Amino acid sequence: MPAVTIAQAALALGVSPDTVRRRVQRGVLQPSHDAKGHLLVDLTGIASIGALPASAAAAEIAHLQTQNESLRLELGIRREEAQQALQALTEMRRLVSQSQMLQAHLAGISLGEGEGGAVVAVRRPSFLTRIFRPR
Description:
Blueprint: E1 3-5, H1 6-13, H2 17-25, E2 30-33, E3 39-42, H3 54-106, E4 109-113, E5 119-123, H4 126-131
Antiparallel strand pairs: 1-3, 2-3, 4-5
Helix pairs in contact: 1-2
């Protein structure tokens, strides 16, 4: 069988192009290049995925399991970082709201609820502020 592209080899072997690339890197499949420098694979003697040596398949499985475990660990770390960032954001929003409420109180601004539950400032008319100013 002549040398074929990665996509053609993947189709012929019934695997993904990434699997073909990994097998080329491990030396299971023999690579070559065309005139334009594109990677080609020689499928001579390999008719299907079952024709691959058992040791190569076992090595690939072990590699993928190791890679899967490291990705799971990284995912756990990223989830924890995201949870911590969310907690920090929630605390920051609480502190900003508390600061705004304090500033509004000091400025004599009443706070009310607007559309969608948003907190809005309602300034009292100036003559009422003078009359009802707390002493």
